[in-house]
Amino acid sequence: MSVTESVAEGLPGRAPAVHEGILRRQSARESSARTYARALPIVPVRARGLTIEGADGRRYLDCLSGAGALALGHNHPVVLEAVRGVLDSGAPLSVLDLATPVKDAFITELFRTLPPGLAGRARVQFCGPAGTDAVEAALKLVRVATGRTGVLAFTGAYHGMTAGALAASGGAPDVQVTRLPYPQDYRCPFGIGGPGGAETAVRWTTSLLDDPKSGVPLPAGMILEPVQGEGGVIPAPDGWLRSMRRITQDRSVPLIADEVQTGVGRTGAFWAVEHSGITPDVMVLSKAIGGSLPLAVIVYRDDLDVWHPGAHAGTFRGNQLAMAAGTATLAHVRENGLAARAADLGSRMLTRLRDDLGHLACVGEVRGRGLMIGVELVDPEADGSAPAPVSATADPSATADPSSAPSGPEPFRTPRPAAPALAAAVQRECLQRGLIVELGGRHSAVVRLLPPLTISDEQAAAVLDRLSDAVAAVARDHTLHDPRHPRYHGPARRTG
């Protein structure tokens, strides 16, 4: 069956049988490692902007956006035009690391967007097509440049699925990685929260590096996410980021910023590190930079460029279609001020979600930055846990500089246990209402929104209506079917 015939199968009239048949064959033939397909049993056949149409004829608002890869949504006209231009030109589609006009245009546009402190002295390495390969390249680069081996990473991090990237994320055991606390308010690792928690995280890091008996030698680099995405949509406080930059700079430890998901306007700045004003030594970029096609690079300070030819290579580094799509995407975001719009719209969406959901005991916190938004679901009936109110401010710019931090710890209330079952129920309820959302966080208890930067105000309102309705429905169902609650109505009826 041709691709055209496969898509045509999704036409109305044949929709239910085609939909079920494809899902059935997927279950029988694809790996048990598949993830999104388990929670989102849909068969996309057409898409434009925020909207996906399934083979069953249903339409969905897509707030997964290819795990953040679709900065402009599905099939944006500027991306399609760029891809068609390469196809119609007769240019080669894959060129290893050879120079081409398409690549030259991509690099020029990419450098135009970089933080000023890096753009003037940057080098770029094209990696394999996925972000995880770019992380591997970054770790390899700083080890070669410094002659050291260890890496500093953070709890809750996600940097990819290859061995080194998994180690930095907390997975593989064979890479020497020291794990540091990542500051957050709702589940502060020190039980403090706010600026006091961030300050303690700074002091912990400083002590670990400066104590000759800590067992942690000076590392080759530090890798961090300005906003932890898979970790539960946790924005790093700007002051803490500035402190990490100062700590690493004072000790000649290269700082690697993983901007795979946060980059290209997602958080309300073109690059998320710009909120804090820091300039990292290395930036890891993928997802949105390819305009929906596979592309990954690292950009780094020129004095780190001590690699020998072939030190990091790969067959699929020269994807011309992705570079053209990426150039069009980067330029469109820059020229149309979409990062600033993401900041404004994201702030309004967070405010409304806090207003709509803040009274629900099953919602622990609503947080985010720009169009990277998370709602953490918790057990409202957990014994021995004091209620933790939804954060009304969650200001990621809170200081972590010891000289300006307030004296004494901030008031902190013990958070309720995470409720992954409730989060999964919210995801199912959203899908029934035509809304695609992602789950994340330590226990997969955070419902995540990653809409395209092109989402309209009207579409954003529709997304929030559906999400709020889904959370409220799950909250009602939990209340009525929790035997600990005085309004218990018996076990919940299972469907599907």
UniProtKB/TrEMBL annotation:
Q: Could you tell me the superkingdom of the organism this chain comes from?
A: Bacteria
Xref: Gene3D superfamilies: Aspartate Aminotransferase, domain 1 (3.90.1150.10), Type I PLP-dependent aspartate aminotransferase-like (Major domain) (3.40.640.10)
Composition bias of kind Basic residues appears in 486-496
Q: Where is this region: Disordered?
A: 382-416, 477-496
Q: What class of enzyme is it?
A: transferase
Q: What InterPro entries does the entry give?
A: Aminotrans_3, Aminotrans_3_PPA_site, Dat, PyrdxlP-dep_Trfase, PyrdxlP-dep_Trfase_major, PyrdxlP-dep_Trfase_small
User: According to its UniProt record, in which pathway does this protein act?
Assistant: Amine and polyamine biosynthesis; ectoine biosynthesis; L-ectoine from L-aspartate 4-semialdehyde: step 1/3
As recorded in UniProt, its EC number(s) are: 2.6.1.76
Q: Which of UniProt's keywords are assigned here?
A: Aminotransferase, Pyridoxal phosphate, Transferase
Tell me its cofactors.
Answer: pyridoxal 5'-phosphate
Where is there biased composition of kind Low complexity? Answer: 385-407
Q: Which Pfam family, just one, is annotated for this protein?
A: Aminotran_3
Q: Does the keyword Hydrolase apply?
A: no
NCBIfam families the UniProt entry points to: dat
Family, according to the entry, reads as follows:
Belongs to the class-III pyridoxal-phosphate-dependent aminotransferase family.
The protein here is known as Diaminobutyrate--2-oxoglutarate transaminase
Organism per entry: Streptomyces albidocamelliae
